[in-house]
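SUBJECT: A protein chain and its fold
Encoding: whole-number codes for local backbone shapes
Chain under study, with its fold:
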Amino acid sequence: MIIKTTMAAVLLAAANMVLAAGSYNDVPPNDCQYNDCLIFSLKNYEGGDEPSPIRGQTKVQAFCECLWNETPDDFRGNLAKFAESAKGKKISRI
């Protein structure tokens, strides 16, 4: 019984990780705020074109998507500049 419960928990956790990879609230196509973040980040930071641990994304895409998802819906500023603020640094650690 314990083995079955443990195996079920492991399988459930693995399924959640597969579903979460790259599909968490994807940015809508042509989102200006996300695109501005990509441009700013590629221009001002190194290594953004390198592959991300999230399959199918570069590091800058993963960074900007995370910021886009974790900022409030009414946020209208530059995501990459926000990431440098005290409040943004807390999100950037995620």
In short: The mean pLDDT is 78. The CA atoms of residues 84 and 92 lie 8 Å apart.
